[in-house]
């Protein structure tokens, strides 16, 4: 009998989950470690063997989660739902262990009526989150082998201990590590209701909630540090020290604190962030790989008899989260769904294709990027919500007037007066509240004023001018700035690709041919624009397994054939990709890979060959023609 595994601390689990998600998704992050742990903990009583050991050592247990909820001192609501397929007889002992006043179960028919199951899950999510999250799943999101869905929903609405006065909210710069900044409304408070302290090179701030020891906690990394890089290096011990520095504010006991100080002026952005993530890659990497593979999972405690379709395994974990911070307080919600399916060879357990994204420029901006948490800094509980504030929404980015005639003319959109003032000697490099006036013209979308400023010596490389032009949808202004030497970043190419503007893409690549963009090929493949893909491949971009996997999924043989010409051999031979190929691809797609020399007897899983995972008879016959043989299933695949 195996020894009982020590649970991780709640803060450690939350930080590690945030770090893993941040590594996959840059920019703003919003998630609920508590909801994730609560949803997965519903599966723990049914786990056995190594699966149970991994869950116990990785996920905070139900007792710890319940205690954190009781100690929160917040207006919190939480509920769980177990959606059970009628085709399986679930164990009464398991259902008894997970049942309490916050947990109910419903029978659904995942096999024959996915639409009804999705409607029930969405109705629960909408009601439990008071409409903040109205929909979390559609019929097409439910894998065919789903036999169980464990759903947790959490909702918070609480006033600040000291609310912000709306009259004090002002437009101020929010500084990015690269020195650029955006004007954004910052809520200001210089009274009570918050704590701040210097802890080493970091500043830690806690904005407390009414009648509670819980707070919105923000960690400001050292100035000039990119927030995601800082988060990636932040250890659990260091995070605990930062929380302790709040508890010791006014008492210089923290070993890293230079002194104890109470910050007298709090400036904090309003924001409304929503996000959704697949948590499978993060949780697998954190230590529960066997739960996601039927050949390695063991959830035999959930059912009376083993399901006829194969053993239960977790076939997906998806979380939706939203948080709204304003002068009054915080409203936040999260819904986490854990699906369990049956089968011998899981549908793409490794290769999870990210969505083809639509790029939006959001001016990033306390007064620079920070990490945030909602919970009690004086306890080591699982945070209810965590995230990264990397940038404010474009709706909150504004400009403010000035006494400068040139700036006033630009703000008013009077290009004729701008030209007149410049001819009379006005300085085209003039600053407006530390912002180059060219930025104001770009922000106004005034191409005539921008052209006049550039003609009179304005520096197009100052600030992030192309982003502002993109924000206003002014394609002509974008092209002008790029042609005149504006700083070009990855997001400019991404935006041009998403708008399928071939001329602008070529201009960017001509001006900066060494530019490399994560998911640049991926988005172009998603749009089916083979001209974009060909241009980037010719400039040296290399297809990844995700690029090839998307072409397979979209059944675009022309795109796939093009990508294979440029793909590295070790990419083509990746077991992760090959499993996805034979399960979801057509025989024509598989033949293209075979022509590139893949091994028809490759084993995506120990003891299981491509033939075992083939998703159609055509693919199966093609593999046999190339000498493919069935494998011998092993019970315990290696940890991933």
UniProtKB/TrEMBL annotation:
Matching Gene3D superfamilies: Alpha-1-antitrypsin, domain 1, Ankyrin repeat-containing domain, Antithrombin, subunit I, domain 2
GO cellular component, one term: extracellular space
Signal peptide start and end residues: none
Family recorded in the similarity comment: Belongs to the serpin family.
Pfam families: Serpin
Protein name: Serpin (Serine protease inhibitor)
SMART domains in the cross-refs: ANK, SERPIN
Taxonomic lineage from the root: Bacteria, Pseudomonadati, Verrucomicrobiota, Verrucomicrobiia, Verrucomicrobiales
UniProt-recorded Gene Ontology molecular function terms: serine-type endopeptidase inhibitor activity
Record domain Serpin: where: 15-392
């Amino acid at each position: 009998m195996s020894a009982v595994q020590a649970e991780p601390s709640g803060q450690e689990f939350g930080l590690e989950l945030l770090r893993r998600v941040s590594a996959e998704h840059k920019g703003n992050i919003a998630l609920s470690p508590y909801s994730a742990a609560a949803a997965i903990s519903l599966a723990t009583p049914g786990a056995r063997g190594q699966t149970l050991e991994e869950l116990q050592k990785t996920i905070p247990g139900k007792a710890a989660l319940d205690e954190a909820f009781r100690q929160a001192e917040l207006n919190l609501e939480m509920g769980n739902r177990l959606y059970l397929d009628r085709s399986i007889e679930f164990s009464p002992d398991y259902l008894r262990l997970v049942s309490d006043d916050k947990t109910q179960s419903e029978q659904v028919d995942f096999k024959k009526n996915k639409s009804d199951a999705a409607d029930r899950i969405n109705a629960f999510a909408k009601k439990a989150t008071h409409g903040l999250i109205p929909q979390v799943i559609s019929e097409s999101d439910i894998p065919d082998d789903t036999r169980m869905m464990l759903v947790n929903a959490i909702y918070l609405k609480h006033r600040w201990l000291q609310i912000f006065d709306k009259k004090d909210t002002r437009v101020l710069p929010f500084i990015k590590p690269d020195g650029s900044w955006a004007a954004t409304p910052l809520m200001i408070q210089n009274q009570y209701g918050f704590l701040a302290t210097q802890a080493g090179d970091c500043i830690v701030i806690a904005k407390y909630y009414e009648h509670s020891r819980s707070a919105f906690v923000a960690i400001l990394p050292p100035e000039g540090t990119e927030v995601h890089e800082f988060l990636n290096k932040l250890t659990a011990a260091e995070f605990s020290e930062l929380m302790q520095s709040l508890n010791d504010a006014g008492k210089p006991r923290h070993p890293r604190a230079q002194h104890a100080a109470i910050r007298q002026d709090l400036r904090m952005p309003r924001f409304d962030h929503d996000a959704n993530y697949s948590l499978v890659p993060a949780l697998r990497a954190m230590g529960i790989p066997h739960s996601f593979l039927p050949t390695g999972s063991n959830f035999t405690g959930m059912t009376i008899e083993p399901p006829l379709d194969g053993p239960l395994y977790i076939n997906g974990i998806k979380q939706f989260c939203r948080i709204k911070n304003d002068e009054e307080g915080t409203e936040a919600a999260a819904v986490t769904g854990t699906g369990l399916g049956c089968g011998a060879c899981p549908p793409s357990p490794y290769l999870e294709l990210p969505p083809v994204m639509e790029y939006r420029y959001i001016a990033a901006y306390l007064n620079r990027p920070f990490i945030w948490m909602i919970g009690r800094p004086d306890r080591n509980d699982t945070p209810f919500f965590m995230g990264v504030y990397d940038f404010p929404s474009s709706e909150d980015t504004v400009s403010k007037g000035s006494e400068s005639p040139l700036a006033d003319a630009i703000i008013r959109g009077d290009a004729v007066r701008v030209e007149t003032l410049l001819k009379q000697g006005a300085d085209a490099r003039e600053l407006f509240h530390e912002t180059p006036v060219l930025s104001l013209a770009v922000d106004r979308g005034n191409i005539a004023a921008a052209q006049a400023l550039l003609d009179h010596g304005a520096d197009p490389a100052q600030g992030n001018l192309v982003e502002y032009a993109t924000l206003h949808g002014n394609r002509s202004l974008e092209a002008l700035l790029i042609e005149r030497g504006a700083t070009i970043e990855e997001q400019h190419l991404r935006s041009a690709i998403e708008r399928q503007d071939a001329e602008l893409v070529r201009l960017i690549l001509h001006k900066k041919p060494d530019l490399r963009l994560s998911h640049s090929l991926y988005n172009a493949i998603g749009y089916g624009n083979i001209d974009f893909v060909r241009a980037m491949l010719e400039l040296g971009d290399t297809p990844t397994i995700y690029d090839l996997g998307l072409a397979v999924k979209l059944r675009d043989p022309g795109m796939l054939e093009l990508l294979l010409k440029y793909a590295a051999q070790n990419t083509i031979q990746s077991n992760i990709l090959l499993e996805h190929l034979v399960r979801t691809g057509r025989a024509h797609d598989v033949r293209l890979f075979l022509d590139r020399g893949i091994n028809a007897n490759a084993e995506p899983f120990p003891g299981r060959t491509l033939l075992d995972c083939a998703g159609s008879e055509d693919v199966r016959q093609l593999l046999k023609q190339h000498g493919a043989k069935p494998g011998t299933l092993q019970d315990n695949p290696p940890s991933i």
